[in-house]
Write a structure and sequence with these properties.
mainly beta, 4-stranded antiparallel sheet, 7-stranded mixed sheet, about 130 residues
């Protein structure tokens, strides 16, 4: 069983930066595929970014490409989402997700919530204009 705990959210002005962390406990996080999703008020949860278990592949939603960077540190059992050039439309609760089944065969698999076994509780990111 893996428990995921997000941190690093907060209030930031447009154009600013935040780094979200997702700390995993219970297993070696380096062996897991991991992703970040977000849910804005009144909207469905959407894919943001993902990283393969080997960390050799990353995937991003078009809306965050060039601004956000996903990474993970196996030694620290932590995944990160560096968010730069933040916009008010990035305001949402951000969720970390992870999976150990090695069943991500194509890029679009990473964007499917049902592919992930483990989820964090979410961290709020608010970007003011």
């Amino acid at each position: 069983q893996v428990q995921l705990v997000e941190s690093g959210g907060g209030l930031v002005q447009a154009g600013g930066s935040l780094r979200l962390s997702c700390a995993a406990s219970g297993r070696t996080f380096s062996m897991y595929d991991a992703g970040w999703f977000r849910q804005a008020p009144g909207k469905e949860r959407e894919f943001v970014a993902a990283i393969s278990w080997s960390a050799d592949s990353t995937y991003y939603a078009d809306s965050v490409k060039g601004r956000f960077t996903i990474s993970k540190d196996g030694a620290k059992n932590t995944a990160y989402l560096q968010m730069n050039s933040l916009k008010p439309e990035d305001t949402a609760v951000y969720y970390c997700a992870a999976d150990r089944n090695r069943h991500f065969y194509i890029a679009s698999d990473y964007g499917r919530e049902s592919m992930y076994d483990y989820w964090g509780q979410g961290t709020q990111v608010t970007v003011s204009s």
